[in-house]
Amino acid sequence: MAEDPLILNPEGGMPRLLEIMRRLRDPENGCPWDIEQDFSTIAPYTIEEAYEVADAIEREAWDELKGELGDLLFQSVFHAQMASERGLFTFDQVADTMSDKMVARHPHVFGDENRDKSAEQQTRDWEEVKAAERASKAQSGTLDGVALGLPALLRAVKLQKRAARVGFDWPDISQVVDKIVEEAGELAEAREKLTQTEIEEEFGDMLFVIANLARHLNIDPEAALRATNAKFVRRFEGVEAKLAQDGKRPEDSNLEEMDALWDAVKAEEKSP
């Protein structure tokens, strides 16, 4: 390490990180685990790190956010290094591609277009630019380019937005609610008459319509469900705390008692 001042430099910035990644992947002297990885094995870690960034923001854990953003940046560096080894592209080309895209998509900032636009108009302009980009990639279908790797609820909303732009959408939110009732009924019937595969299909249909309702209500279903998960954890921990006051654990209790304690925790949360 004595001959590697860049790697030892605590203020080495991106050049330092890129060199560390190159060294980790070095076939002769690198890390065996890093050398064995490929795009498909690293992709799940990339998704996980993105969620950890979102989690830190959700918790307003600003001290943790720097590290989580670093972890996510490292994923980009890892993929770029593997691509460079194959002669596909370099990290600098990744950065340049992103810069070109942002300049092209913001003519009201970097070009001659009028900046005095509403957020709604800018969103419409953004979609037009992205549609032109898809056309240049021979993605002619309305739903082309919606990433398969997105979380299912998020992808459902994106697919529905694309379809809505060409008029395939319920015009009234009451129709969406009616469809949820219909799907719920079909799911209840499926539970008694259909195979497990068919039941899963009906359940998927209901989730898809619920995602549509979220879109009509301008709700991010992923964010809403994350908030509900957090609320469930908080309240159940409250139930456990109340049981602990009596020297008990959940397995020592029963549903009736825990349900009453749940209501008590809810009431405490809502009290001024």
Automatic annotation (TrEMBL):
Its domain of life reads Bacteria
- Identify the residues that the record assigns to the NTP pyrophosphohydrolase MazG-like domain, covering every copy: 37-110, 177-236
Q: What is this protein called?
A: Nucleoside triphosphate pyrophosphohydrolase
**Family, similarity comment:** Belongs to the nucleoside triphosphate pyrophosphohydrolase family.
> What reactions does this protein catalyze?
ATP + H2O = AMP + diphosphate + H(+)
Q: Which Pfam families does this UniProt record tie to the protein?
A: MazG (PF03819)
> Which molecular function terms from Gene Ontology are attached?
ATP diphosphatase activity
For the protein in the UniProt heading, the enzyme class is hydrolase
Q: What Gene3D superfamilies does the annotation carry? A: MazG-like (1.10.287.1080)
Lineage, highest ranks first: Bacteria, Pseudomonadati, Pseudomonadota, Alphaproteobacteria, Rhodobacterales
Instruction: Give the EC number(s) listed in the UniProt record.
Output: 3.6.1.8
Question: Which organism does this sequence originate in?
Answer: Shimia isoporae
Gene Ontology terms describing biological process: dATP catabolic process; dGTP catabolic process; dTTP catabolic process; dUTP catabolic process; response to stress; TTP catabolic process; UTP catabolic process
